[in-house]
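ok so I'm stuck.
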Amino acid sequence: MGYLKEDVINYVNEEDVKFIRLLFLDAYGKQKNIAIMPNELEAVFNYGYTISSSSILDSLCGKVVLWPDPNTISVLPWRPSTGKVIKMFCDIKNQDGTDFELSGRQILKEAIEYADKKGASIFLRTEFEFYLFKLDQEGDPTEIPYDNAGYMDVAPLDKGADIRRAICLTLSEMHIDTCGSFHAAGPGQNKILMTKDSPLIAAEDSLTFTSSVKTVAVRNGLYANFTHMPIENKPVSKHRIVLSADSETLKLAKENIKKHYDEIYLFLNNTNNLYNDYDTEKDITFDEYLNEIYIERLSDGYNPYIVYALLIYAIFDDNECKEKALSLKEAKEIARNSEFVKKHLTEAFIKNYTE
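replied:
not stuck anymore, here's the structure
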């Protein structure tokens, strides 16, 4: 898109924008934000916005600085058209301008630069499944699914069609494209497919996707649940990353990602219930027709900055991890001792995931 800070300032002044949300992730990939007013925007572009580092990790007590990226500007379409609200993702720096050690965005940007120097063209997209549940009279989620339809059913069994439509149109207004949507196998379960994009855009589009789905659901009196198994003995919700690349890079990816999968599995899946029936051969597959690699078994709370960065680095590293992450405890131990992980993640990130 190539927006400059002047473009954003002009847009805010001309389009009746009243709030600007500055978005960032905490140490574990949870979205955070702070809203500023239009009269503060130019100063924030020039000097950053200082926040407490405890917003990123509770145990920290210093200050860090948010630097909004004008390329990530997007209007929140569910907010009023008068007094608009926009958002931007932010880089996180220390107060002296150096990189903050828990900035996953910076780690991904460095991985992208590394791939560029290798002459690689890498694209990523995410496929999400989620359940829709009814809300009670107080607006709290129930355990009652929105419908009892099955895989690719149509209306009237499928009650989620209008919700999926609203989600896709909302994303479109935010310049995020989807390429398919349908009712999944479980009651109230839905699936939406995103289109591929460059790694940083794909990471932040996936973050926007989950927050948008939850917002659209609430506005329709529903709750969107992305967890692995919200209903016992019903189909699990699968989230997967789809990787495509130029032919040479794709060849390397097919060979090397599996070699490092056990070392990075912790960062894809940090909950115990995703270690049952773990099988690298099933979790990483290749579509010969579409020339795409599928990475399965993502937990709903994974940090896309970190995961995408590790996948990119894994493509170009042919050293093989011999250990198997058959439990969360084992995955932490493998990641803690991995030279590959130590090389590409900061000590702070490794510590917070493995303790």
